[in-house]
Amino acid sequence: MRKSTKAATAVLALAVLGTTGYLTHTALAEGDGLGRFANQKIDWHKCQLDENDEVGAELDAAGAQCGEVTVPLDYRKPNGRTIEVAMSRLEGSDKKHKIGSMLLNTGGPAGEGLDYVLPVSDAMGKLSSRFDLIGMDPRFVGRSNPIDCGWDVGTWVRSAGTERDGFDEIVDMQADLAERCERTKGDLLPHVTTRNTARDMDLIRRVLGERKLSYLGYSYGTYLGSVYTQMFPKRADRVVLDGAVDPDRYGATMFGDAAGHAENALKDWAKWAAKRDAEYGLGATQDEVVATVDSIMEAAAEEPLRIGEYELDDSAAPIVLLDGLSDDREPSNTKLAEAVATMHTAATQGSAKPGPELEGMLGFVLTGAESKYGSAQASILCGDVDVPTDPDWYWNDIEEHRADEPRFGPVYRDISPCASWSTEPIEEPTTVDNDVPALVVAATGDPMTPYEHAEALHGKLSESRLLTLDGARVHGVYGEYGNSCIDKRVNKYLASGKLPSGNPTC
User: Fold this and answer.
1) CATH code, domain carrying 444
2) Number of domains forming the structure of the chain
3) Residue 62: which domain range?
4) Which residues form the Peptidase S33 tripeptidyl aminopeptidase-like C-terminal domain (predicted)?
5) pLDDT tens digit string along 148-164?
6) Domain presence at residue 60
7) I need a labelling partner for 155 at 20 to 30 A (CA). Which of 52, 177, 237, 360 fits?
8) What is the pTM assigned to this prediction?
C-alpha cells in the first residue's frame, strides 16, 4: 500500500500460458483477436465531469485531456463483454525530442491515477516536455467501471487486538465483506487481476501508437510494473519502481514483513513528538510518548473512544497511527501528533472533537463512504494470490510475533477478506525473473514496504539498478520526498535511458 493513495495496471501477447488460454509475452500480432481494440481511436476530451469535480477541473486547468480505451473484460474471450479504462494525458510539448509515453501508477492497489500526471510533471521539470504523461484509473478503479461491493467500511484493514474474541469478530467481518463482493460483483471478480491490468496497459500502448512504453510505479505499482516487464519484456522502455514490493511476497499476507518496521517508525516519530511535549502533551521522552500511545490503545480496547460522531475501538485505532508513519517530514509528523493528541483527549476525558484530517480518516475507516476503494483493493489482492483460509493460521502468526510487534503485528498479520474469497485466482501468480533494465528506488526506513523488498526486486530484475535513500522513513521517494539527489538521478535516467553504472546511495 501507499500512503493515502490507491492503484493498478497492464499487458498482452502471442503464446498460450498453460491451459488458461491467456495471451502473454512481447508483441501482439495481427490475428490475435485484439485488432478491433488496437485500432480504436481515443476521443480526448475535457476531464471535469461536473462542477463538483475538483480533480477534473485541475487537470483541465493544466492543459491535460481525458479519454477512454475499450478493453476486453476477459482476454480469453476478446469478442465478449468489454469495459472501459479511463486515462488522462498531459502531452509533452517538445515533439522534436519526444521520448514517448510514460504510464503512471500510484499504488494501492486501487489507487486512482488520472491526476498523478500533474505532480510527476512537476518532478520531471523541463524533461516532462519530452514525454506524454499518461495517468490511468486501472480496471474497476475510479472512473474505470468501479467495483463497489456495498461495504460499510472504506478499508478491510483492521487490528486483531489482544484477545481471541476480538479477533473472531474480525474473522466474521472479513467473511461478510467477501460475501458481499461475491453476491454483488461475482461475475466480475475473476477478471480483477494485476495480469489483466498489465494486459490493459499493453493494449493502451498499442492504441497510443507506441513501440515501447515507459512506466513509473509506486508501492503496489512496482509489482504491477514488474509483472509488465515479465509479460512484455520487449515493450518496456524506461521503468522506475519506487517503494518496491518483492513479487514473491506479494499478496494479502505480504504486509507482515512491515510490522517490525512500523514499530520502529512509531519510536522514531515518538522522538519527534517528545521534543514538542509542551505543544501536544504526549510525553517528554520517547518512552513516555510510546506509553501514551499504548494507553490510548488500551482505553480503546476497554471502551470505544468517542471522537466527534465516531466510535473508535482497538481494531481501528492503530490504522490512524499507521497513516501518519509513512513519512518523517514535519507536516506528516504534525498531522499524526494532532491525531494522537485528540485520541488521548478522548481516552482521558470521555470524548474529543476531531480536526478535519482526523475526521476524514475516521470517515474512511469506519463508514462506507469509500466502499469502492476497499472493494477494489481486496478484489485485486484476492484475485491475484491465494492465502491461507484457516483463522488459526493468522492468530498463531500474530501470537508468535506479539512480543516484538505488539502494536502493528496484529494489524499487518491479521486476516483479510481473501481468506473467505469464493473465487480462486484463474492464473498463477507471476514469477518475475528477467533482464529488463529498470531503476528500483527505495528508502532504508520505509515502514510500508521494507527495504529488503527493494533488494529482492532488484535481484529478480537482473539488469536493474537500486537507488537508495539512506536513513529516511518514507514510502515513495521520487518527486514526493523532496530529495534533490534522488530526483536528479531518476530524471537523468529518464532523459538518457541509461542506468547508473552501480547502485548509488543518496
Assistant:
1) 3.40.50.1820
2) 1
3) 15-149+187-252+429-496
4) 416-506
5) 999 999 999 999 999 99
6) yes
7) 52
8) 0.93
